[in-house]
């Protein structure tokens, strides 16, 4: 297919640049106006109030929420309704032998909480029925015993804990707690 050559441009008649341009371009037509190019996509909406509620709940959990602050001599005690009273009484008297124990003495609260969570998860995974946690009496803490209150708060919120009670005097007294764990669900 042979292409034809465009016609030779006409020599300018006068020095007017606009006239020269119009002669060069020829007839024109108006273009349809274009829409604006798409902008940046809007960010997805966030549930800010839900996020704030979650933060408040996490802070309340860290503080212990509505749980009373325990002093050094306070006895830790908790029993779920599904734990028979007779079994809880045996735990309270120290008749159930702990299968493992964790000593939290001398640890800061954050490290102790991390170790306690890992220990409890391992104990439940391994199918242990009873464990002893040594938190100390908190006599060196200013104010309330930090570890004792953290242990109480954390154990109350674990679904695998059936009950717990401060150990008898021969096993640590109010500086330790015996914990009864729920049996592991079969797979």
Automatic annotation (TrEMBL):
It holds the Pfam family Smr. One of its GO terms (molecular function) is DNA endonuclease activity. Residues 1-13, 29-39 have a biased composition (Basic and acidic residues). Residues 1-47 are annotated as: Disordered. SUPFAM superfamilies: SMR domain-like. This is Smr/MutS family protein. InterPro entries: Smr_dom, Smr_dom_sf. Residues 102-182 form the Smr domain.
């Amino acid at each position: 297919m042979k292409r034809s050559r465009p016609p030779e441009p006409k020599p300018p008649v006068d020095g007017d640049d606009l006239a020269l341009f119009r002669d060069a371009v020829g007839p024109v037509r108006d273009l349809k106006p274009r829409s604006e190019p798409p902008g940046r996509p809007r960010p997805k909406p966030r549930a800010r109030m839900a996020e704030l509620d979650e933060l408040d709940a996490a802070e309340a959990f860290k503080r212990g929420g509505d749980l009373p602050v325990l002093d050094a001599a306070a006895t830790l005690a908790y029993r779920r309704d599904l734990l028979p009273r007779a079994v809880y009484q045996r735990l309270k008297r120290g008749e159930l032998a702990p299968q493992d124990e964790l000593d939290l003495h001398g640890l800061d609260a954050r490290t102790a909480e991390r170790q306690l969570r890992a220990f409890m998860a391992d104990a439940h995974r391994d199918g242990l029925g009873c464990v002893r946690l040594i938190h100390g009496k908190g006599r060196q803490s200013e104010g309330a015993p930090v570890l004792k209150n953290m242990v109480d708060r954390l154990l109350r919120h674990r679904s695998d804990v059936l009950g717990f009670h401060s150990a008898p005097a021969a096993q640590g007294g109010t500086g330790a707690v015996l914990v009864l764990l729920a049996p592991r669900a079969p797979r």
